[in-house]
Write a structure and sequence with these properties.
The protein has one domain. Helix 2 packs parallel to helix 5, helix 4 packs antiparallel against helix 5 and helix 5 runs antiparallel to helix 6. It is built from seven helices and two strands, in the order H-E-H-H-H-E-H-H-H. The protein has a two-stranded parallel sheet with strand order 1-2. The chain is mostly helical and 192 residues long.
């Protein structure tokens, strides 16, 4: 097992647990049947978290050369970002359903601020570690134009969503992220 596989395995376990949490929560909701008052935002948030995890995992394959040169501090940054992704996924759907009715609209409203702050924080941290690694390991130069990347527009937008409670705005943002994550690697294989 090489350095890349060794480091990726630890982060992959955390991401696997995040996907498992989403699936178990969905299973519980489906099992609760008529007690669930379904709403579109919480399942969309869960789908965004799932797709974010899948695209992150997929993109790691391209970073095999960089992973060999990661320092402990860089890897710690990656792990913190991965834990943030786990918390994002865990927040999307309720874990405990209790005995009474389950209102997914109320659940989303309760967790929306945490969800979007985790979303923004994870992107900021993972992007920061990526830039740091590119500069330190691949000897890339920092290009200020990088700050104009659409990724950097998503961070303040997510922070705004943490504090603005407009359901339509949240639905549009979640739908846009679903499309973004579904199309990000469309047609690409691990070979190229």
């Amino acid at each position: 097992m090489g350095a890349f596989e060794y480091l990726l395995m630890f982060a992959a376990v955390i991401l696997g647990l995040a996907v498992s949490d989403v699936v178990v929560s969905l299973h519980r909701l489906l099992g609760a049947g008529d007690r669930v008052r379904w709403d579109v935002l919480a399942p969309m948030a869960a789908l965004v978290a799932f797709l974010k995890i899948v695209t992150q995992w997929w993109s790691w394959f391209a970073t095999a050369q960089i992973a060999r040169g990661l320092t402990f501090e860089m890897f710690l940054g990656v792990l913190v970002a991965v834990v943030m992704m786990f918390l994002l996924a865990a927040a999307a759907l309720p874990d405990e359903l209790g005995e009474g009715p389950v209102d997914l609209a109320a659940h989303y409203q309760r967790v929306a601020r945490r969800y979007w702050l985790l979303f923004a924080g994870e992107i900021a941290l993972m992007t920061g570690v990526d830039i740091w690694a590119q500069m330190a390991i691949a000897h890339a130069r920092f290009n200020p134009a990088t700050l104009l990347s659409p990724v950097f527009a998503i961070i303040p937008a997510a922070v705004v969503l943490a504090f603005v409670r407009n359901r339509w705005l949240h639905a549009i943002a979640l739908a846009g992220l679903i499309v973004l994550y579904l199309t990000q690697f469309l047609g690409r294989s691990l070979a190229g």
